[in-house]
Amino acid sequence: MSDPTGRRAVAAVWRIESARIVGALARCTGDFALAEDLAQEALAEALVTWPREGVPRNPAGWLLTVGRRRAVDAFRRRATRDRKYAVLARDLGEGGVASGGPPPDREEDVVWDPDRIDDDVLALVFTACHPVLSREARVALTLRVVGGLTSDEIAKAFLVPTATVQARITRAKKTLGAARVPFAVPPADERAARLGSVLSVVYLIFTEGSSASSGDDLIRFDLAGEAQRLARVLARLVPDEPEVHGLLALLELTAARFPARTGPDGEPVLLEHQDRRRWDRAAIVRGRAALVRAERVGRGLGAYGLQAAIAECHAVAPSVGATDWERVVLLYEALGRLAPSPVVDLNRAVAVSMARGPAAALPVVDELAAGGALAGSHLLPSVRGELLTRLGRAEEARAELARAVELCGNERERAVLRGKIAALG
């Protein structure tokens, strides 16, 4: 008889341990694509075996051993007896697991190297986020092999067909193979440059989760939560990198506001109307601690650290009016010099409007509009409409907000914009 708890156990173990399993298999085989395939085969076998025979005492070891055994079988099918086969066969024990039979359940039978686990996961992250891959491929591969999400889950998160996600993952693995990307933590002189790609992928995942670009939900909690988990893993794996802690601080402090960002029916609640008592105080504590860590191990805050410092200004303020907006303006100015972006300039304009009034901020927004950098985004007309509303220029504000509605892809945000238009009379 099949036990449904077995399938739930498989899902839970896979979400927690998949990165370690794929990383260990990649280290042993030297083939990233093969390792991911082997891990998926082990997962499929667990979905059949565990509900029928029960969950093994060492679930992660069970999956790893099955994956290693499948690796031996794959090398055998290729009729090779090279060094890789010899190493795998010796590790598994001649005549033991490699020769067939059920996977072992005793920990002493399981090949598991705890001293290499951190390096394996770190190598996995750097491989999945390699610069030779497109941004979309990095995101899909990271969520698949590091986050343990299925293709269906990734497709649902980004509102694309499952086949599209599967194609991206397949192409990504082929690209890594064609480029002969080694499965290894990059040397120190390359790590800093490559780390930026890793952090940008995690940040992109969180951004899409925290402010969904399309669909009916404002926040995709699973996606944002996965990005937070990945950031925590990175903070443990590379504890001396300040921007890793800066990113973790930013994610924690931003997610702390999630409980108050939506109403009972999922409708957005603007910052000035949020019940700050509902903010996650534990997340704020974690975020501020990570920000302190970023300051301690670095020589000044980087781009993610500066954004975290801005989020901290909001987190510690008792109200919108009591927020230290002048400090927020200064932080955005520093961020604009370090990581210039029209979005940063637009956010600075919002801070300027809060610190010095809408008339001081409107020229900044007008300059951005003239430059055309945000022509396809709803953010600029949304901000400009708000500033014009506060200046009493209702007709112009209505036109800007209507433009924002046309450009916005998220139904919840469109509803808020329509409400602002209605309020103008």
UniProtKB/TrEMBL annotation:
Q: What is this protein called?
A: RNA polymerase sigma factor
Keywords assigned:
Sigma factor, Transcription, Transcription regulation
SUPFAM superfamilies in alphabetical order: Sigma2 domain of RNA polymerase sigma factors (SSF88946), Sigma3 and sigma4 domains of RNA polymerase sigma factors (SSF88659)
**InterPro entries associated with the record:** DUF6596, RNA_pol_sigma70_r2, RNA_pol_sigma70_r4_t2, RNA_pol_sigma_r2, RNA_pol_sigma_r3/r4-like, WH-like_DNA-bd_sf
Q: Which organism is it from?
A: Saccharothrix lopnurensis
Q: Name the PANTHER family on file.
A: BLL6612 PROTEIN, BLL6612 PROTEIN-RELATED
**Domain DUF6596, residue spans:** 194-294
Name of one Pfam family that matches? Sigma70_r2
Q: At the top level of its lineage, which domain of life is listed?
A: Bacteria
Family membership noted in the UniProt record: Belongs to the sigma-70 factor family. ECF subfamily.
Residues covered by the RNA polymerase sigma factor 70 region 4 type domain: 127-176
Q: List, alphabetically, the Gene3D superfamilies matched.
A: 1.10.1740.10, Winged helix-like DNA-binding domain superfamily/Winged helix DNA-binding domain
**Which residue numbers delimit the RNA polymerase sigma-70 region domain?**
20-79
